[in-house]
């Protein structure tokens, strides 16, 4: 469990710099350059992801069961996951979805985390998904008090919402039919 927690500290820590002290992040990026800052951010984030994946895999070998999800809870999870991929795509495809949700990626992370907390009742699951949920909530709250930097995205278009929905639903189906099993080692159905 220690490796999982170390990975979460690295990954969420580097992603929380702007939450905790956005002016400091801006000063450091201005001093060393935006690209070197992004390179450092990326290296730390990737190291965090590696530790999260490794630590989660180790922790799942001997999990402590906190609660046992029922079958209907897993069905709720499948339903809650339907809009997650369209919301993720809407982050980079300016349209009504993006303007309505303001921060569709954070909305997707929150919904994804809640859905996975419903379907998984072991301590490693609670630590992983609960941490990501707490981070997404904190980041969304902090964005109300700071200016968000630009997000690279496609040009605005009336077709962007359709692309996000259709592409997102295709990704959802792909995950249900095998990608989740291949990446995570667990079939969602």
Provide a descriptive summary of the structure in words.
This protein is mainly α and 189 residues long. The chain has two domains: 62 residues; 125 residues, no CATH class. It contains nine helices and no strands. It is globular, with a radius of gyration of 18 Å.
Q: Beta-strand level of the residues, as a percent range?
A: under 5%
User: What class do helices, strands and sheet pairing give?
Assistant: mainly alpha
Silhouette = globular
Overall tally of structural domains: 2
Give the number of helices: 9
- What portion of residues is helical? over 70%
Let me know the largest β-sheet. Answer: none
Number of strands: 0
What is the ordering of alpha helices and beta strands? HHHHHHHHH
**Average residue-wise pLDDT:** 93
The Rg value, from CA coordinates, equals: 18 Å
Distance between the terminal alpha carbons, to the nearest Å?
Answer: 27 Å
Instruction: List the uncertain runs.
Output: none
